[in-house]
Structure formats: structure tokens, C-alpha cells
Amino acid sequence: MKILLVDDDDLLIKILTRNLATHHYVVDVVKDGEMGWTYGSTFEYDLIVLDIMLPKLDGISLCKRLRTEGYTVPILLLTAQDNITAKVQGLDAGADDYVVKPFETIELIARIRALLRRGSNNPFPLLTWGDLLLNPSTCEVTYNSRPLNLTTMEYDLLELLLRNCQHVFSTEELLDKLWSSEDFPSEATVRSHIRRVRHKLVAVGAPHDFIATMHGRGYYLKAPSTEESTTQSATPAVNNAAGDSQIAVSLKTLSDFPKYSPPDDSQQQYLSFLNETWKTTKAKSLDQMTILLQVVRDLQTNQLKPQQQAQAQQVAHKLAGTLGIFGLSKTMHTARQLEYWLGGQEPLQPKYAPLIKTLVMALQQDIEQTTLIQLSQVPNGQSPLLLIVSSDIEFNQSLEAVAASRGIRIQIAPMLENMAKALGARDSVLDSLDQNPDIILLHFPSIPSEPHTYQVNNFWELQILAQRYPGLPIVVISDRSELCDRLEAMRRGGKLFLTAPIAPEQVIDTVVNLLRGNEITKKVMILDDDQDWLHTLPTLLKPWGFQVTTLADPQQFWTILEAVSPDALILDVNMPQISGFELCQILRSDPHWQRLPVLFLSVLTDSASQNQAFTVGADDYLCKPVKGVELANRILRRLQRVKAWAS
């Protein structure tokens, strides 16, 4: 698969091209928008990864230009702008996805795979053809469960044929698809690779003509014989029993594969590459620290100029991006906090000098002490994430140490200082988080001389968090423990109330217990013949962590149901061939699926339709259009009842 990367950040280009190459992507790189247009309009790409802030022609304008000229290639925006306005602007310009720097490379690769699947004939995570199975997530290939050891180019060739299994590729097409614009070998090279792949396939039991030749036209995958496997096609056909079997095989087999882990040799090579790159990056980062140290000195003497503060904020922002690329999460979060405090609308006052100095010194110390990069430093995304909203640095650091020992990741956002900073400032901080938290800890500061202001600000902050993350448990820590404070905290969305002072171990114990009680599997299957809703609903449910499987064809319902095994089902009423009411009745007649929560989501608002839904066994009924928060809460309530019944 061929990707065009348009970015002017040399470090990001170096790291990202290395990672993309590891996952068998061919990458062309250009560093300004005009060259991006030249390459994007001249060569054929499967995906364009595009920064917004570019020389000569900005990314938004380039995206609009490509769409205006009729280019439909998927576009993923990659930018440091992490506000809602920038995201909406990018998506409205025609982008298909949006990733904020700094990012976890593993997440970016997953997003790229998802975008490529949308434009492929095969929308499923695995690529199969007869007994041949290729998993893009792990870069593993097997034939009849026997592994194939392929070179990078051989893997790329086989993946291309599998993704376009009904297409006959000429040698010219293969050259264009599999080699970058800088490397353009002869047609004999293509024929040589085809010959080697055929030889390796035959060695594990495949037919000699598995990759067939259509003389005068090119190469294609020959349709498997019926004896070879029940898995007949990489593109399942509607109303085709063999196609239905393919869906089940693809989805069931996916769980059997491990997550991507490079071979030991590749892992060591990548570590060496990272550490060599870190040597030069570390020196440049420490040079930038002189700007931040000067800000501390000028702030202490009340001589800090606005342009100086703006420059320091940009330095902190770039450092956060750089550190994130290397997987230095703790140091990256320190840089983010610094960026937040330097990025206010008003000039910093000398009273903030101790806070800024603490953050700058911590940042410098972490960079100086990082001598080797380890792959284990990159979070695996599986451990729970605790969001701590607190401006008490010592408190945050003590919790971070205990949480790390318990396998809990932490992200920190400072408390809003006053009402004047309002919702925009809070959204700016929360939007910059890598992912939604699993639990929130809100630490009220010590009681000031104005207790009324203290109450208003703190409880207002609690209410914002509860509205932003509905359904997530919020633990409040305060040194006020009167009945009125506890009552107000519960009214504003608090789940638990702890009284300060309290040991960090006790706080994390409380968090762990809440997480255990909050573990609810959230696999949701949605069946609707309205393609617009099928694309909209996963986005609406994303903030609540639901794993969404969508399906438009009722004929494939039972196959997908058994393969996915959802925790909740959302059905439309009127669909071709089989109605939602009939499907619900079928579910309620099966002993295994009798208790599966079923929610109807329909344009029908009449009471007769709603009554019929409940008669056939529905648990809930909602009318389109629906807000994400309402749908998510309805689903969560059903899942909680199922869990309570099971226990």
C-alpha cells in the first residue's frame, strides 16, 4: 500500500517513515503543500497523511483542492492543533480522519489500517483467499495454518492482490503501487517477485497457479476450488453461503492472532535506530530549555514580555510532540502542563514563578536522565487510564509513583484557576488527552480565605467533568467534609468523596476498586440499512469506549451476531427482506440470546410501532435523530442491569 506523507517536521518524518516501512507501507515524502499537490495529483496513492501547518500551501487548502479536483483518496490530517475548531475545519475540508500530535505510533498505524480498509474491497481486519490468510495488524501470513516467510516486497505484493482480489494487475500497475516514486525498477523485477511468491506458496501446499497469469493483461488471484476451504472469497457476496462463512472465519480468526510485535532482530534494529535519533534530539531539546529557564528568571523579576511567553509556549508545545514520538509519556505530560500554563490569554504573574520553575526543572531533569529509549516506555493502551485534575504538583507526583506500581496510567490536567477561564480553557486541556480516561480524580485545592469562591469554582469544575464524561466515575478529594459539601459533590456528578489529607496508596486502592466495579464489556452491534446512520453512530458512541460493529444487510445478521458476540444490539425497524421486529423475535426464541439487550432506533415515532417493539421483546426504543449522550446512557443502563442480574 502506497502512502504520501506531507509534513515539514524532520524528526516526525524520520520516525514515521521507519514505522510505516516496518508495517510494509511504501512512503513518498514531501515537505510543502505545493509539492504535496504535485505528487498527489500525479501519482496514485492509497492514502495521504497531511499536516495542516505547511509551507507554501497549508494542509486545509491542499485538502480542499484535492477534493475539488475530484480526488477521492483517503486523507488523514496530522497536526499539532488540538482544538475542536481545527478538527471541524479539517473534516469539513474533506479529510477522513484527524490525529493530534503528539500521538502513539501504534494508534496512528491502526487508524491508517482502518482508512485503508474502508477503501478496500475487503472491509474486514483479515484478508483471506481460500486457505491463505494475511493479518495486516501482525504482518503474519499463513496458508492452511502454515506460516509463509516473505520479504517486505513479497508481502506487499500478496497484500495488494488480496485487497483487490477481483482485479487483474498489469506489471505497470504493480510498479506504481509497490515502489516509491524515487525507486522505479524494471518489469523484470516484478516478474521475479511474482515467481518467488509462487514458489513459496507452492512449498506450503498452494496450487501452482494460485497467482494466475492472464496473458497480455497481468496477474490475479485464481478463485479457490470448493475442496480447498470453506473460505471462498476475500469479498463475501450478498446471499452467498460461502461468503457468509468467510465473514465468520475472518472475525473469529482475528482473536487468534497476537498483537503486532516485531521479531527480535527487527525490534533490536528499531531500538538502535531510536537511540541514535535520541542522541541528537536530546541535545537539541536541552538547548531549547535555555529559553524556558530564561522565562523563569524573567517571571521571578516581573520582566516577562508577552512575545517571550508566546515563544516559550511554542517551545513547550514542540517538546511535548518530540517527547511523545519517543514514547516518553511522563516527560511529555510535564511539557504539556507547561504549555498549558504558558498559553493563557493574559501575561503570567510573578506569583506563578514557583509553579513554572518546578515544571521547567522537572522537564529538564527528565530529559537529562533519559539516556536510552526502551520499547516498553510506549504505553500499550491496555492498562486503565486515570485522569487527575489537580494543580498540586507534589500530590500528583506521589500518586503517579503508586499508580505506576499498580499498572495504572496517568494523565494530569490542572484545575481551572477561576471562572473567567471558563469552558474553552478546560476543553483545550481535555481535548489534548491521548484518549478518554477510565476514571477521574478531582482534587480540590485547600480552603482559601474566600470559602464561597472556593465552593463555586470547585463544584463548577466537577459539573463540567461530569457533563464531559457522562457515566465515568469521578472521585472527589477535599479537605472540607461537611454534609453540605458531600451533598453538593454528589449532586454535581461525584461518585466517591474522600477527605484530605489521605495517603496516595489509599487513593489508588479506591481507584482500583472502582475500576473493578466499573468493568462492563461494551461490544455493540448495530443493524440498519441507512448507511448514513451506520457511519454516524460509531462516532456518537466513541467517547464512551464502545466497540461498535455495523451491518447493513439483515441476511448476514446471524453470522455476524455469532462471530462478534455483542453485549448489546441496536436494530432499525424497517429493513429489506427481514424487519427488526422479526429479528428480535428470532433472538428471543434462542436460549443463548434471550437476554441480549435489544434497543430499537427508528424514524417511526408512533405509539403502535413502539408498543410492537416491546411486545416482541425490545428493552428500549429511541427515535431518530438521537444524541450520543442519550443513546450511550440507555445502552450503559441496560449493560449494568445485565451485569447485576448475572452477579
From TrEMBL:
Q: Which GO terms describe its molecular function?
A: phosphorelay response regulator activity; transcription cis-regulatory region binding
Q: What is this protein called?
A: DNA-binding response regulator, OmpR family, containings REC and winged-helix
Which controlled-vocabulary keywords does the entry list? DNA-binding, Phosphoprotein, Transcription, Transcription regulation, Two-component regulatory system
Q: Which organism is it from?
A: Nostoc sphaeroides CCNUC1
Provide the Response regulatory domain boundaries.
Answer: 2-116, 385-515, 523-639
Query: InterPro entries attached here?
Result: CheY-like_superfamily, HPT_dom_sf, OmpR/PhoB-type_DNA-bd, Sig_transdc_His_kin_Hpt_dom, Sig_transdc_resp-reg_C-effctor, Sig_transdc_resp-reg_receiver, WalR-like, WH-like_DNA-bd_sf
DNA-binding region of this protein? 124-223
Which PROSITE patterns does the UniProt record give? Answer: OMPR_PHOB, RESPONSE_REGULATORY
Q: What is the lineage of its organism?
A: Bacteria, Bacillati, Cyanobacteriota, Cyanophyceae, Nostocales
| Residues in OmpR/PhoB-type domain copies | 124-223
A biological-process GO annotation: regulation of DNA-templated transcription
Instruction: Indicate where the modification 4-aspartylphosphate is found in the sequence.
Output: D51, D572
Can you name a GO cellular component term? protein-DNA complex
Show the Gene3D superfamilies listed in the entry: 3.40.50.2300, Winged helix-like DNA-binding domain superfamily/Winged helix DNA-binding domain
